[in-house]
Input
Amino acid sequence: MAQYLAALDQGTTSSRAIVFTPEGRPKATAAFEFTQRYPRPGWVEHDPGDLISSQVKALKRAVSEAGIEAKDIRALGITNQRETTLVWERKSGKPVYNAIVWQCRRTAGYIDWLKEAGHAYFIRERSGLLPDAYFSASKIRWILDELKLQERAEAGELCFGTVDSFLAYNLLEGRPHVTDATNASRTMLFNLEKQDWDDDLLRLFGVPRAMLPEVKDTAGQFGVLCPDILGAPIPVTAMAGDQQAALFGQACFAPGDVKNTYGTGCFMLMNAGDMAPAPEGGLLATTAWRLNGQAMYALEGSVFTAGAAIQWLRDELGIIKDAAESQALAESVPDTQGVYLVPAFTGMGAPHWEMYARGTITGLTRGANKAHLARAALEAIAYQSNDLLRMMAATLGRRPQVMKVDGGATANDFLMQFQADIGDIRVLRPAVRETTALGAALLAGLGVKMFSSPQEAAARWQLEREFVPDMAPGTRKKLITCWERAVKTTLFDASGRREAPCS
Ligand code: ADP
Output
């Protein structure tokens, strides 16, 4: 009987497909990059055809490399870059414009106008999000305005979808127009508490309901893959945004369970239970997943510059040849000698939320060298993550004992140990680092009733290494105080005032 699970992971720079064994181990992986389009400064687009073709190619390659037949796949899950916006003709399936990628800033002015008009609180209360050009709503508005499509949208001739929805429309039999509750909660049109499109938000953004997909549970029947793709009608039984899929793949099922993904930036999500939380500062509230009609919520926060600070050491300063070298360099000195790097290259995220802040190095002395700087850069990733963690813990009123981690920079043992030390938290690094795809595959297994509960699915989560906190409380307190002073210097610089240096 078919027992393999497969996941499509449609990311920002590549489309991946992974076949998992029944034990949750990757059997074969394939990935294809596609072109990033920058038609103007700050604009980012993808060709919708590229998304489909790269994804289909990856799936075919993964299945062939796994050496299995399509009928051996019990179910398929789809996970995807979130918020990226597509509009297409219902009849022909033809996109009316390129996919407008989450990073695209073209609607920043419109969002500023919304904020100035006093809509920020209302948007946050209903959607859990902060008004920002990232989310889909303003991108839909732009497409309808620029291409003069409002009437056709009202008449139901057009479909809006995030990437999950667009893939389902193109790859599933019968062209279902569907999405799931995690992706819907990134559009800024979705009522987090009611778990349905919000009429007032739709009115604010002028988006007709007629163009919206049906919002389904994260795991369940979405349809079957068109048999001409792999030769068998594989059930598609899960769809989830990438960060939510990773939260599931990390088995963070109980309130307070938290995962942090260390990539270019960091994405931290904490399970917030079955009541929509009211986040403060720069944190967002989002649907973690919805199963059997019951939503689970998460708090979400991000560190804008994490692994990118290590790329900066490599590319701009030239003090390391590759990212992995940062570990040995950092470990060649016992501490940073009071050097702090606040890598606010593109502003600072939660909890400070200061878009105009820029990077700062404090505490330089004549003896400071590249090893101190490399160590300060790695430590900065941990300090920033710890700031997020503390804010989430305060919002939920519970302090987690463990944090699950994934992403490229988790290969760095020094960083992982420092994270454990500074957060006074056990850091768990799993055997399978492809947690996003694993989460989508496990959700698909749940959707096809291969598992009876998330807990049963999660039995497949396996520890690779645990980092146990090993720092004296006094040392931790002093380091955090000094980090906070370095951050203050950065923030005060942004407003033109200076803070005294940390001794
Ligand atoms: P993304 O999905 O954002 O592209 P990845 O999960 O692939 O990110 O991780 C890549 C990032 O991790 C890069 O910014 C890189 O600098 C950083 N990185 C990779 N390996 C290491 C390492 N050993 N130590 C520190 N940073 C690393």
